[in-house]
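re: ur msg from earlier - yeah i can do the 2-deoxy-2-amino glucitol-6-phosphate complex, just paste it... oh wait u already did. ok heres what im feeding in:
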Amino acid sequence: MCGIVGYAGYQPAAPFLLEGLQKLEYRGYDSAGIAVFSDKVRTMKSQGRLATLREKVDAAGGIPGTLGIGHTRWATHGAPNDINSHPHSSMTGRITVVHNGIIENYIPLKEELQAEGIVFRSETDTEVVAQLFDKLYDGDLVGTLIQVVGKIRGSYALGILCKDYPDTLLAVRKDSPMIIGLGEHENYIASDIPAVLDHTRNYYLLNDNEIAIIKADSVELLDLDRNPIHHDVYTVDYDISAAEKGGYDYFMMKEIKEQPNALRTCIGSRIQNGKIQLDKIRLTEEQIKNMGRIHIVACGSAWHAAMVGKYVIEELTRIPVEVDLASEFRYRRPILKPNDLCITISQSGETADTLAALREARANNVHVLSIVNAVGSSIARESDDVLYTMAGPEIAVATTKGYTTQLAVLYLVALKFGMIRDTIPAKLAEKLLHDLEALPDQLESLFNDEEALKQLAKDHQARGTEKTRNNVFIIGRGIDYGASLESSLKLKEISYVHSEAYAAGELKHGTISLIEEGTLVVAVATQKPLYEKLISNVKEVKARGAYVVAIVREGCTDVESVADQVFYIPNTSDLFTSTLTVVPMQLFAYYTAIELGCDVDKPRNLAKSVTVE
Ligand code: AGP
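and the outut:
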């Protein structure tokens, strides 16, 4: 989603702003702009990639000034074009703003301002903030901001420049992320840490309804009653190279390859002497024993992790689990009881729908435990308990290590709850812990198939008709169906090849009519009790001309007589196979996208962090 940067210091602001925006490119955007203040505010913006804006700035010989704001926009109100790009200035040019989020009541505010003769240039909700600020401005910068905040509704992280304050950058947030980077004789604002990492590791996390007054040598934090606020300084504890590509062509491949280590950290730090330590959660053993129902709520891949989690948690704890898409949950009046638990899952911790679902659950007095990657994110901060996935920064829009570490935390939760509820026989618990600890090495061994999967991606694009090249089926039963959903999304989002994940038994109820000579069907068959049934489904599609690629456990060599190609995963518990079966499909999706010349890390129309509804 949109990215914000800002600079107050003694060095030229424009290079910092452009570089910071580049570090935020992963959030997804369709236009970009910067505004820099010297004798006046000069703004440059352009539709499309950041490189276009950079060319514009270079062609103008740079922009002078040591105070500035920048923005990458992902269009919500008004088309992605130069005029609607941020920053936006008021009619008089006194106020300039960048904004992430949505001003929900911008239409009545705009109409009011227009009735007073104020002329708007753009179709955006953001311009209302600049115009309103200017109209209410009485020389008191903070006082005016407080008035503005009192009038706007919705979500916002705002960076603001005022012509009367040549040394001051103003920031405020509500329901949209914002950090304040703390440098030496320079300070920064940003939507996310990578934007400032080349300059500082120290930062404040701005909370909702807090104001920051940022100058080169000071940062002042105030609440909306102008009371000073103290915040601890956070220090980034991951290496700067973790946010860079580290020699890979794309972040996605780097992140695929980081999965073994991410899992080692996520699982290893929580299993000690044969026992699971679930961080310091407030949820008591009593609550776990008396739990009525678990509601897992998430979006996209996190929802796919939840689909697998449902099978695992129900199997090990015998607690009924409901899985909801966050965007549906919040509007369907879910039946929530005080002894229920809501688990929200989010890599970014900023997904608007998941955050809203979390609030809905809490408003119904349901304890919320969140599984989150981004430390200090909104979802993490608003939850009763947080279990971090510890995957490190994930930059590629398509999640990989984010998803597999979410699965790992779900396995840990299921095991821990099952042990507390006495629903797992001791011998089985011991075996499952052992299998869990083996997963990182087992996942790593799957990279041996990388060349074969690259070739499969090439061959698939060279074979068949345009129709068969662009329609792939991924079938599985039980947990394998859950994992197939994620594999299918990976292929769709980065290569734009249409694919469907199907519960294998459901194919013959309609979809099998789409199978024709050369259709690629990936059959995931790792569940021992369902193996024979899945093989029958493979035979059904094979008989209709499908080209079948099977993903099965080591030793299931009989599948070679029915499938055209087979990939094997190491042996583990039936409950944990999704962590492994998804990896060949991540690689297949990656190489298909490469084969088709797609921008792997930044697929069209997508944003890494979806902070609007
Ligand atoms: C994953 O590849 C997707 N880009 C997307 O579905 C993502 O999982 C979803 O938007 C949820 O994001 P979150 O985990 O940050 O909440």
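cool cool. DSSP finds 19 helices and 26 strands in the chain. ping me if u need the other ligands too
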